[in-house]
Amino acid sequence: MFEGFGDFYQEFATSLCQEPVLKLTDQNFLDGLTVLSVFTHEFDGHPLELMGFVYRQPNMQENEFVVARFSVSCCTADARVSGVLVQSPNAKEFKTDSWVKVNGALGLTTYEGNELLVLQAKQIS
After folding, report:
1. Which residue among 44, 45, 48, 92 sits deepest, i.e. has the most Cβ atoms within 10 Å of its Cβ?
2. Mind listing the pLDDT tens digit for each residue in 1-28?
3. Rounded to whole angstroms, what are the CA distances from 52 to 8, 11, 29, 45, 76?
């Protein structure tokens, strides 16, 4: 099922898929994002839980934000935001930079011409 991207990510994707709820944690956040972006169709419909800060870009809809973390390769000067797009009718209630825990189901969407997974939030706290 998970082929073509190296043993580590194939094994990680397989282990995530066997869980009743995919959980992105402090320990697996970036590897989890990599797996979700590589094996997009395989994770369509799976439940997901993650925690991070609310990040928004100016062109986002009112019902959207990203649950994000900073990733650093070398030093803080190269820090970048990485995360999962979330859609929720009450998304605007959550302030940018506030930390949230989100549970929901993954689905496919197109954002700025790219197909990606979006988390349809069922619970945000």
Report:
1. 48
2. 666 656 888 888 888 888 999 999 999 9
3. 24, 25, 10, 21, 18
Using alpha carbons only, give the angle 118, 51, 30 rounded to the nearest 5 degrees. 70
- Which segments of 22-63 does DSSP mark as H helices, in order? 29-38, 40-43
84-119 pLDDT, tens digit per residue, is 999 999 999 999 999 999 999 999 998 888 899 999
Contact 69, 83 (CB under 8 A): yes
Rounded to a whole number of angstroms, the distance between the first and last alpha carbons of the chain is 34
DSSP count for the chain of H helices, then E strands: 3, 6
